[in-house]
Amino acid sequence: MNQKQADTSPNLAGIKNIIVVASGKGGVGKSTTAVNLALSLKDQGAKVGLYDADIYGPSIPIMLGLAEGTRPEIVDERTMKPISAHGIYCHSIGFLVDANQAMAWRGPMVVGAFNQILNDTQWGDLDYLIVDMPPGTGDIQLSLAQSVPVTGAVIVTTPQDVALLDAKRGIEMFRKVGIPILGVVENMGLHICSECGHEEHIFGEGGAESIAKDYAVDVLGSLPLNKAIRERSDEGVPIVAADAYGKVAEIYRNIAIRVANTVQDLNSSLSTPNISVVDD
After folding, report:
1. What is the CA 62 to chain-centroid distance, rounded?
2. Whole-prediction pTM
């Protein structure tokens, strides 16, 4: 784990792994991936938190079906208790501002808000805290990545060339700050016509596999262009909760299993001492 600021707040002490879900650009399904990954890890028996750090466009409250005006409980005039929804603990800037308020903040204000919410939330003991990062790869994203003791990053993309280019930039950014890439999730990989069953790669084909090969990382899974994923998110019951035994939920479960296994391998390698024997 990246230990840069692991001891900045006692509220982070009980978190075993912090996983950021990131994308080089918006509109590729990053938040949907974060929510369904969190729920899938919970379904495996893990204790999971979800932090909506997309300051400019917080969408997690809607996706989890939390009513407008939901606010966290304030403790000791400073710290906050996360909101419980669908068996996970969550927090979001969306709980603290009006839904119609534009977040016209500069970089330092965004980073300050991010750190304050993260550090002042009583997360308790968690196996995973999933962080839904803002899209992009600029100064804000670098600052956020460096201010959190991150176990690893999941990169979300679509098969479009422009999205793949931005995904590569995201991988490069995390590598520069020493954060391991847990793998790539491809959204909108295949469209299946609901009328005739015809399969078509509307946004391109093989992009995620190409990135995985170039950067020696895994493709964690490929999600289809599926109307139900969007509809369930809009309704506040993510697809993993709404259709737990469906094909899409199975894909998310497999992604979660691969993430958990990769995290376990990373933690094992960090805890194994490196012993050198020198013949004097």
Report:
1. 16
2. 0.88
